[in-house]
Write a structure and sequence with these properties.
The protein contains four helices and two strands. It has helices at residues 11-14, 39-52, 67-80, 85-101, and strands at 3-7, 25-29. The longest helix has 17 residues, at 85-101. The two termini are 18 Å apart.
């Protein structure tokens, strides 16, 4: 199974601040739409559960999570994708470093709650 680039600072959430071509990525095995159970699918499934909390039918609808909350969800999604603790910490720190480079701090809200990705089940 081939891999796909996975934006650590999810493009749909951060593109107003971090340009698509500049966003730091990791390569994860699998296509999120066709390879159910792949590392890339699992990463997005985990992030979708986080974002659903802030979407129209979630308990925090109308609100945005903080960057720190996103980073915790990013870490969890990397663990769900199969990265070990050290790897998940490393890529999460890389995302934080890039956020700081673009003026985003942990106490700020994410720029946008992205629309739902309808993953196959």
């Amino acid at each position: 199974i081939k891999g796909q680039k996975h934006h650590l600072n999810q493009n749909a959430a951060f593109k107003k601040v971090i340009p698509y071509g500049k966003g730091i990525c990791v390569n994860l095995v699998g296509n999120i739409l066709t390879d159910l159970g792949s590392a890339h699918y699992k990463a997005h499934k985990s992030l979708e559960a986080f974002w659903d909390l802030y979407r129209s039918d979630g308990p925090f609808k109308g609100r945005k999570p903080t960057i720190d909350q996103y980073n915790a969800a990013l870490y969890d999604s990397m663990k769900a994708a199969g990265l070990n603790d050290a790897q998940a910490q490393l890529v999460t720190q890389a995302a934080i470093d890039q956020q700081l480079e673009y003026g985003l701090t942990g106490d700020m809200e994410v720029p946008k709650v992205p629309g739902k990705i309808h993953l196959r089940k």
